[in-house]
Design brief:
Length: 140
Amino acid sequence: MPARFRLDARLAADTLPVTVLPLCALRLMDDARFPWLVLVPRRPGLVELSDLAVADRVRLMEELVRAGAALRAQAAEAKLNVGALGNVVRQLHVHVVARHPGDAAWPGPVWGHGTRRPYAPEAAHALCASLRARLRQPVP
C-alpha cells in the first residue's frame, strides 16, 4: 500500500486550515501578530523542494503566487517573505509572511520572535473565509 499524506503534528497544532489547493494544504499560522500562510504539498515523505516532481514544483510556485496575492490583498502589506526552512518541522512546507515596517519583528525574521498571539476564533474564521474568497479571484 502506498504511503499517504499526513500533516505533521506540529504544523497541525500551530496552524488553522484555510483551504485545499490542487497540490497544497493552505493553512494560516495561528499568530495574529503576523499575516502568515503555510503551504504544505500533499505528497508523502517530502522534505526538500527537490523531492517534488518537476510538475509539482511548477504547481507549488503557482500556488505560492496565488496565496501571496490573496494575503497581500487581505493584509495590504508592503513585502512578502517566502521561506522553506524545515529546521524544526522536516515535512516540506513553505511560509508566506506579509511584513511591514513596524510589525512586531521588523526588520528581522518572524521565527522565534516574541510570544505567539493566537487569533480569536471569530477573527480566524473571518480571515480564512476572506482568503478563500480572494483565492477564487484571478491573480492581478
